[in-house]
Amino acid sequence: MATVLVVDDRATNREVARLTLDDGGHHVIEATGGPEALDLARRLHPDVVLADVVMPGMDGYEFVHQLRADAGTADIPVLLYTANYRPDEALPLAAAYGVTQVLAKSADPDALLAAVERALHAEPVTASVDAGDVGAEHLRTVNAKLLEKVLALDASEARFHALADVSPVGIVSGHTELHATYTNPRLADITGYGPEQLAGHGWMCCLDQPHREELLHDGLPVEPVSFYGEQDLPGGRRWLHTTIRQITDEKGGFVATVDDVTAVVEHEIAERRRIAERFDSLARLSGAVAHDFNNMLNIILSFSEFTAEAVRDAVGTTLAAEQAGDMLDDLDRISQAGKRAAHLAHELLSFGGREVVQPTVLDLHAVFAEVTELFEPVLGRHVTVSVDLHPDLRNIVADGGQLTRILINLASNARDAMPDGGALTLTADNDGDNVHIAVHDTGHGMSPEVLERAVEPFFTTKPKGHGTGLGLATAYGILRQAHGELVLESSPGNGTTVHLYLPATDEPAAGSTPPAAASAGTGQTVLIADDENGVREAARRILNRAGYTVLAAGDGRAALRVARDHPGTIDALLTDVVMPHMNGPELAAALTAERPGTPVLYMSGYADPLMTDQGQLDPDVTVVGKPFTADRLLAALHATLTAAARR
């Protein structure tokens, strides 16, 4: 084991060398500079000296020169190691001082241990030139390296300032007492203070008062710390994220970064506000739906009880005309409430873009001719209507009934916006791949706040009882389902323009086909599948009364079992869409695989499971919407059977 004196002004370098030499079995003593190392060498006479080249006060060359000048230490082997010189640069001058080995500080630990072993077993060496020549060479070598380092430092500083000047965050650096000696231009932009005001403790305006006082009291923290909050600055209130790190070299100090995250925070706040508004809108929607449906259900349940009581009272008696009239009136109230509930359900499905629709190619000239005839009872005599359609207006693809509903709803809104009369103008022209329909009224218009919420379901500015708030919401949903767009333009005193954009097509418009009439069956067998007992029983009664033979099942799996057990033909499948275990489309696929050619008629008020990825019903799919009447169900079934017979 040898005693090695390590001479280096940096503690981290001494620690690295000590760990390597300890692992090699050597005893290490340390010195922080040349004078201290000379004293230790004279007193302890180490076996080997490992000295840095560049040190303040006395560099490695001067240290070796004085070590060799003392007869008591002249024979001690010396190794020089350096991070500033290349070994081949340092070796000529080192050899002149009697040093035969120069190592890079980045050398492997094994290289250092091998160099120590060589030094221990080598013959002592002396300086090869006289002191004057060595001194001159020493100065030339040191000056050349100093110039190289100064130029590199200047280039590094220029790069630092270039990077700091364009940095998106504020940068601060300074002493351990948290006094800033440098701030970049971005920090001045963020805070609104000039560089002079940010110097010293001025940069701490980026922190709130409690954190500022804590740092000034406790001093620079050892570990990096971050502070986040809103600060009142000359440039306005800003949300800042400030991180402070200690510099751990011998000089110490700190560096801090200040990131202005105001835009991010304001976006998050706005997003949270939008989410809250969506929840408020959903709360209003659910509340309004529950309110309206509860009213309708109350009518249905109450008048059902009245009718049941009247029937029970009439048992065993002859029903008088007055009693029958009261019963029929009660039943009519039930029917009207049911129709209102069905209408509300359709409006909600339209808003959600999930109503059962059958888009066709429409000629808008024909559509507007029909719709304007319906405007008079809606608008009254005080509103004038004008229509201006482009003569070469392209056809569109949409559900004609829904488009008519949109235009009548818009006319109704326009009437309410013009209580003292006014003008309603409808225009349509070609707009790229779309047809643009504009409906303009000369009413009082909408404020920006109302305009922003105008398409929310159940939002209305009309007095209670004068509107449900579903007109524009329904129009928006219908347009979205048709791959179109609805745009509102309005301001107080300037009326409102509703812009509708619908996909255009060059296909010819479909001919007007009258709806299929309800037709009596001729004994055909129809398999009904619906998991709702009441709906299934209603459909069974309607078809039985019309002369059809009915097989019924409560779900898709049961329907397949019924079909397999039935020995005769099944002329049609009438199935609900949404059912547990096996839905309608799955049942239809399984049944037609076993009984090819069986026509299928779906019954549903919710079309989503039947829609394609483009949000449209497949052309081969036929749906009768729920709730259905006897006439509508029979007409749809007759059309389905007739189409199958043609195929």
Automatic annotation (TrEMBL):
SUPFAM superfamilies: ATPase domain of HSP90 chaperone/DNA topoisomerase II/histidine kinase, CheY-like, Homodimeric domain of signal transducing histidine kinase, PYP-like sensor domain (PAS domain). It is found in: Cell membrane. InterPro entries: CheY-like_superfamily (IPR011006), HATPase_C_sf (IPR036890), HATPase_dom (IPR003594), His_kinase_dom (IPR005467), HisK_dim/P_sf (IPR036097), PAS (IPR000014), PAS-like_dom_sf (IPR035965), Sig_transdc_His_kin-like_C (IPR004358). Pfam families: HATPase_c (PF02518), Response_reg (PF00072). Residues 288-506 form the Histidine kinase domain. The keyword Phosphoprotein applies. Keywords: Kinase, Phosphoprotein, Transferase, Two-component regulatory system. The keyword Transit peptide does not apply. Gene3D superfamilies: 1.10.287.130, 3.40.50.2300, Histidine kinase-like ATPase, C-terminal domain, PAS domain. Its main location: membrane. The modification 4-aspartylphosphate is found at D52, D576. NCBIfam families: sensory_box. This is histidine kinase. It comes from Actinoplanes campanulatus.
